[in-house]
Amino acid sequence: MSIRRVVHTFKPDEIEAEERRLLIPYGQVVPKPEGNAQIGDILVADVTTRLGNRVINSIKEATFRIDKQLAFRDGMAEKFADQVAGTQAGDVRTVDIALSDAVADPGLRGQTVQATFDVKEVKKQLLPELTHEFLHTFGVRSTDQLRELAGVVVQRRLEYQQRQSAREQVMQHIAATADWQLPKDLLMRQARKALARRVMEMQADGISEQEIAARRRLLEHNILRSTELSLKEHFVLQKIAEVEKIDVDDADMDDEIDRLAAQTEETPRRLRARLEREDMLEALAAEMIERKALDLILDSAVYEDVPMNKEDQPPALTTSEEQAVPGPMRQPEEPTEGGETNP
Questions:
Q1: Does residue 11 lie within any of the structural domains?
Q2: Spatial CB neighbours of 125, under 8 Å, sequence gap ≥ 6
Q3: DSSP assignment string, 177-228
Q4: How far apart are CA 34 and CA 31, in angstroms?
Q5: Which end of the chain is less congested by CB atoms within 10 angstroms, N or C?
Q6: Which residues, at least 6 apart from 109, have a Cβ–Cβ distance to it below 8 Å?
Q7: Are 174 and 230 in the same domain?
Q8: Is the same domain home to 57 and 115?
Q9: Do residues 116 and 87 lie in contact, with contact meaning Cβ atoms separated by under 8 Å?
């Protein structure tokens, strides 16, 4: 196969921006009386969501950090930064939110609603002082080492994107030769495990917990579609593993748990106990086998290196626990009154 691989050499300003992103959660939030809200600032707003003239929900004095995109628990504002940039206290802005398939109201699933942000206050974050004691939070001893860490983080993210892109190209090649229709009830039964496999894959690739949470939210918003793609990959890669006699043994599993424990700052013993309790050891083994099968494909591919452009970079995403639609969101395996499985 010929695979397109995005390559990039990170410039000092890009590494500096990543360093700032690492520090933001530890900063102090202070008022920004002049307004002019920009990416990285924080809005305090009353939010009212509507579909046409119908009022769906009202949220009082909610707090949102501004990024390119904003993921509610049940919807995605893909142009959030563009639609609120420059705002100040007293302004009213309208934001489009694409709802997920899991909202409580069946008539709103997949709809795009409008959210009115009545801005009460704009705040900004001051970065923490880089004292010797604070730097230990990141396991470094100097500002130079912190900058090096930021460089490692952006490079790791690029490598993850390269691998995911290669994986998608492999699956597109396979899908072009076979059009499969997976049963809906199968998709729903497997949604939780498919999502957990993706999370473990990101942890194994060294993606930060904050970024994993954001990417997980994206997968959850269209759970049927993401599960369908994940299952198709699973079936193909498992078949390749079967033909090529790829397997994992106890030593492989111990090594993987040690590696994941280091990423999640848990002890290996506690992580194994949690995976056993959540019935996820089998999913971990499947993810490891799939990774080996994918490596087999990618090792024999021919790569075409192309420079990264804006379209290749995933937009920055912030998450919120607020919901655009009130009511309990449906879980993938939750049955309806008629006995069918909810999408």
A1: no
A2: 24, 27, 28, 29, 30, 40, 41, 42
A3: T------HHHHHHHHHHHHHHHHHHHHHTT--HHHHHHHHHHHHHTHHHHHH
A4: 9
A5: N
A6: 99, 100, 101, 102, 103, 343
A7: yes
A8: yes
A9: no
As a whole number of angstroms, the distance between CA 32 and CA 125 comes to 9
Burial class from Cβ neighbours inside 10 Å (0-12, 13-18, 19+) for residue 289 reads: buried
The dihedrals phi and psi of 76, each to the nearest 5 degrees, come to: -125, 125
Model pTM?
0.72
Boundaries of domain holding 68: 28-126+315-343
Classify residue 15: in a domain, yes or no: no
pLDDT tens digit string along 33-51?
999 999 989 999 999 999 9
Residues 205 and 264 in one domain: yes
CA 229 to mean position of chain CA atoms: 16
- Which two tokens mark 9? 């050499």
Q: How many CA atoms lie within 13 A of 169 on its CB side?
A: 18
Q: Are residues 300 and 319 in the same domain?
A: no
Tens digit of each residue's pLDDT, the chain (343 residues): 889 999 999 999 999 999 998 998 899 999 999 999 999 899 999 999 999 999 999 999 999 999 999 999 889 999 999 999 999 999 999 999 999 888 888 899 889 999 999 999 999 999 999 999 999 989 899 999 999 999 999 998 899 889 888 988 887 877 666 667 777 777 777 777 777 777 777 777 667 777 777 777 777 776 777 777 777 778 888 888 999 999 999 999 999 898 888 877 789 899 899 888 888 888 888 889 988 998 998 898 999 999 988 766 777 788 898 999 998 877 655 444 444 444 3
Q: Which helix (H) or strand (E) holds 90?
A: none
Length of the chain: 343
**What element of type H or E holds 124?**
strand 112-126
Q: Is 33 helix (H, G, I), strand (E, B) or coil?
A: coil
Given a contact cutoff of 8 angstroms between Cβ atoms, the answer to whether 240 and 296 are in contact is yes
First to last CA, the chain: 35
Backbone angles phi and psi of 92, in degrees to 5: -125, 125
Q: Round to whole Å and give the CA distance between 218 and 76.
A: 8
Indicate whether 4 belongs to any domain.
Answer: no
